[in-house]
Structures are given as C-alpha cells and as structure tokens.
Amino acid sequence: MNEDQLVNNLLSKNADFFENLTGGLLIFVGIIFLIAIAALVVIIIGEVKLFKKAGKPGWAAIVPFYSTYVLVEIAGLNWWYFLIAISGTIINLLGISGLGTVTLIAARAVNFFIFYNLGKKFKQNPVTYGVLGIFFPGIIATVLGFSKNMQYDSSVVVSPNGPIDDKKGNTTTASSEPEKFCLGCGQKLKPGTSFCENCGKKVE
After folding, report:
1. Distance between CA 85 and CA 137 in Å, rounded?
2. Among 60, 103, 177, 198, which one is least packed by beta carbons within 10 Å?
3. C-beta separation of 38 from 137 below 8 A
4. CA 175 – CA 48 distance, rounded (Å)
5. CA of 83: how far to CAs of 50, 75, 91, 103, 138, in Å?
6. First to last CA, the chain
7. Strand partners, 181
8. Contact by Cβ (8 Å): 107, 92
9. By the 8 A CB rule, do 118 and 74 touch?
10. For residue 100, what pLDDT is reported?
11. Residue 105 CB neighbour total at 10 angstroms
C-alpha cells in the first residue's frame, strides 16, 4: 500500500467517524428538544389549570405579559408588582444597559411574593412555596394547577405586599360575622372587641 492509499484510508475512516458522531449528536439534540417541548406543554397546561382554579380564564395563562399581570392579581398583590416583574424585558426593549442584575433580583423578589401568597391561598407553607417559586416558578405553578388536593381559597387573607406587612401565621379566612356598631355612639366595632374604641362602652 503506497502513501496515497494510506492517506485515503485514514480520511475515509475519519469521515465515517465524524458522520456517525454528527448523526448521534443530531439525534441527541432532537430528543432533548422534544423533551423540552413536552415539558413546556405540561407547564402551560398546569398554568391554565391554576388560572381556572382561581376563577380566571385559562387562555390568560398563555398570553405574554397579561399572564403575569393576572398571576399577580391571583396572588392578591398590588398591581404594580406586575411592572417590576417585567422590568427586565422593558429595560432590554429600551436598550438600557447596566441594570440587568437589578431587574433580575427585582423579578426574583416578585416571584417570591407571588408564590408566598399563593402558598397561603392554597393553604400550603408560604415560605417554602415562595423560595421554590424564585427558582422554579413554572414547575410550582404546574404543581398547584394539577394537584387535586390543593384548591385555591379566595377568602384567605393575604398582604398586598406578600410577606411584607403580613401578620405571622395569618392563614385564616376573612370573617363572615355581620358588622356591629356601638349602641352608645354608633361607631363601627372591630370583630372580637369587647369595648368601643370611641366611647368606651361595653359591647353587648
């Protein structure tokens, strides 16, 4: 075998090797792509179910930006948390540089607030759900949406600022007691009070 034949054989073997390697990589990438698409579909379905549990239209879960606004609303937060949540996208669209880290931290904080309140609404541990919501918001929303054991309770009282101003351990529902008024001065009485704060008259 002369030198030219040896070179041709080596080139042929290398070509076959790289062809097989390329084919294997394409198959691997294709499988990963299909898994990612399947996971995305499951997450979307889960979020649709979550929205429906909260009494919102399912289609709202698949509309960009509006889905975030509705999720903030479902969580019982002030509406402007929606602006903070999408601040990163707004900054990028405006071409403002240097604020990426700030907007990322702000968005993660809003995620914590959203899932903190949702944890309470679904009668789960709010801190646990808040922390998990920072890193895996889509997965946590999917779990809440698909779970038959966890139902959204709109009567659960939450703070419009998430854990801020939230009374410790307050997962009770809004009081269904009828409003009471002081017989002495007509002042509206707080639930469970024994004396009128305005005139001091004992509540009968």
Report:
1. 12
2. 177
3. no
4. 30
5. 21, 15, 11, 11, 19
6. 113
7. 188
8. no
9. yes
10. 80
11. 11
Strands (E), 4-158: none
Beta-carbon contacts of residue 96 (< 8 Å; ≥ 6 apart): none
Read off the pLDDT of residues 44-76 as tens digits, 9 standing for 90 and up: 999 999 999 999 999 999 999 999 999 999 999
**What single-letter amino acid sits at 16?**
D
C-alpha span between 47 and 95 (Å, rounded)? 31
Phi, then psi, of 185 in degrees rounded to 5: -120, -5
Contact yes or no for 51/57 (Cβ under 8 A): yes
Residues 6 or more apart whose Cβ sits within 8 Å of residue 45: 142, 145, 146
DSSP state of 176: -
Question: What is the DSSP secondary structure assignment for residue 180, as one 8-state letter?
Answer: E
123: exposed, middle or buried (Cβ count in 10 Å: 0-12, 13-18, 19+): middle
CA distance 152 to 16: 58
DSSP class of residue 152? -
The C-alpha angle with vertex 128 and arms to 175 and 104, in degrees rounded to 5, equals 110
For residue 181, what are its two tokens?
């008024």
Q: How far is Cα 93 from Cα 104, in angstroms, rounded to an integer?
A: 15
Q: Is the pTM of this model over 0.85?
A: no
**With 60 as the cut, is the pLDDT of residue 118 above it?**
yes
pLDDT for the residue numbered 99: 81
